Amino acid sequence: MRLIKNGYVNQVTFMARVFPVNCYLVEEDDGLTLIDAALGFCAKGILKAAEQIKKPITKIVLTHAHEDHVGALDALKEALPEVPVYISSRDYRLLNNDRSLDPHEDQTPIKGGVPKDLKSRANILLKEGDFVGSLTAIETPGHTPGSMSFLDLRTKALIAGDAFQTRGGIAVAGDIKPWFPFPAFGTWSKKTSLISAKKLLSYQPTLLAVGHGEMVENPLNVMEKAVEELKRKIG
Question: What are 165-182's pLDDT values in tens digits?
Fold first, then answer.
């Protein structure tokens, strides 16, 4: 487990050199909001990181339902039974292994693994503009139909889940980077991802924090380049 702090955002990384999986502990006055639950073996490391920060985890927020973002949820809930869990109302369906699509959505199969034996469920369902402490929820479908990103209104730090990746080069979800193609392989709709990436640019974030790869300060230029690259590829 590796812990890196940038302002209120603490990046917790597992397997940093091989297959980096990130989750985030966002500091609030009363505790920590955990964004994503990484893989099944990561619970002890997440709890240890909270101990190092010296604040309790008071909320668990999931950017989407894929197994590398919800894997440790059961173990975390065993340790923190009173802590509420948040996910978008759309990806709550995916968390329950409902892969059906709505009529307005891109009619391509939903990709990526969702753990079939996960017992824990979110008890608070999020929609666009909802607040979780200092974070505002932004609907950013593409990687999954219900993917969400979260903007810290104090600093404009953006925790974007898999809407972007920075491992192997910055990319919008669905744009294959040969050195780390896995987020693209798990992406449902590149067309929808591109729309969401443009939406995130409009928030003018000062920090980009993603599920796979390092945090990027002052990320607008590289985010814009990533958007243009995927736009060029899909026409």
Answer: 999 999 999 999 999 999
The answer to whether the predicted template modeling score (pTM) of the entire model surpasses 0.90 is yes
Instruction: Please report where in the chains the tokens 């928030």 appear, as a residue.
Output: 203
Residues 6+ apart with CB under 8 A from 182: 19, 212
Angle at 172 between CA 94 and CA 21, to 5 degrees: 65
Question: Hey, what's the torsion of the CAs at 116, 118, 124, 125, to 10 degrees?
Answer: -20
Residues pairing with 40 in the sheet: none
Q: In terms of Cα–Cα distance, which of 70, 80, 82 is closest to 42?
A: 70
Q: What is the pLDDT of residues 19-43, one digit of tens each?
A: 999 999 999 999 999 999 999 999 9
Determine the topology of domain 2-234 in CATH.
Metallo-beta-lactamase; Chain A (3.60.15)
- Who's near 222: CB < 8 A, 6+ residues apart? 170, 208, 216
| H-only helix segments in the chain | 43-53, 67-70, 73-79, 89-95, 182-185, 190-201, 220-234
